[in-house]
Amino acid sequence: MTATKGGLFRFVRRYTGDDEDALDLVQETYTAAWLAIHRYDPARPFDVWLRAIALNKCRDWGRRRTVRRWIRQTVGLDAPEATHVADRTPDTDALIDDRRRIERLNTALRDLPDNLKAPLLLTSIDGRSQQEAAQILGITAKAVETRIARARQKLASAMMCEG
């Protein structure tokens, strides 16, 4: 478990954009894996199987978040992002600009559609090959390549619009 925990947390953290949500989802992933261990195929790499479970947990989390956001808007409650105050104690203007760019990037990553976000995170952040990402996602390597290109275009566009 320890060998996969750090990489799994980084992957989920990039998906959710939040440390606490990522910790919860990693815990849910390990729990689900333990409960489904009888379905694990030893012919497949364990980390690929575990990553697929984590990806499903992230997708479920995203759907729940969307529903909660819709309910908040319908009932008239403010979104938590509107009341969140970030810790801003950098020494220079350059550090402030860097932090803002990172926040914009994290927001742009979080807002990517699942079908584009997952391949990008698996290959760019998690260091998986396109073939490994294809196995995890159940799609072809060419589809992974195409989705990564589209994700990068959307990120670049989002960064240009907000910059």
Notable features of this structure?
163 residues; mainly alpha; Rna Polymerase Sigma Factor, Chain: A; Arc Repressor Mutant, subunit A; 2 domains; 8 helices
What does this 3D model show about the protein?
With 163 residues, the chain is mostly helical. The chain has two domains: 1-84, Rna Polymerase Sigma Factor, Chain: A (Orthogonal Bundle), CATH 1.10.1740; 89-163, Arc Repressor Mutant, subunit A (Orthogonal Bundle), CATH 1.10.10. It has eight helices and no strands. Helix 1 packs across helix 2 and helix 5 crosses helix 8 (141-162). The chain is globular.
How would you briefly describe this protein structure?
The protein is mainly alpha-helical and 163 residues long. The protein has 2 domains: 1-84, Rna Polymerase Sigma Factor, Chain: A (Orthogonal Bundle); 89-163, Orthogonal Bundle (Arc Repressor Mutant, subunit A).
